[in-house]
Amino acid sequence: MTQLIWLHEDCLRATHRLFTEAASADTARPVFIWDDPYMTAMHYGLKRRVFIYESLCELPVDIYVGDTIETLRDLHSQWGVDEIVTGKTPNPALKAMMQNLRAEVKLSAIADAPFVQMDSPPDLRRFFKYWNKAKKNAFLYDGRP
Amino acid sequence: MQKQPTQFPDRAALVAHVKALSPGVSDDAVSETRGGRAAAEALLAAIDPTAYGHSRNYLDGAVTRLSPYVRHAIVSLNELRNQALELGDGKAIEKFIQELGWRDFWQRIYAQNPDWLWHDIEPYKTGFAASDYADTLPQDITAGETDSAAMNHFIHELKTSGYLHNHARMYLAAYIVHWRRVKWQAGARFFLGHLLDGDPASNNFSFQWVASTFANKPYFFNLENLQKFAGMQAPCDFHTNKCFGGSYDDLALTLFPHMAAL
Question: ipTM of the assembly?
Answer without folding.
Answer: 0.96
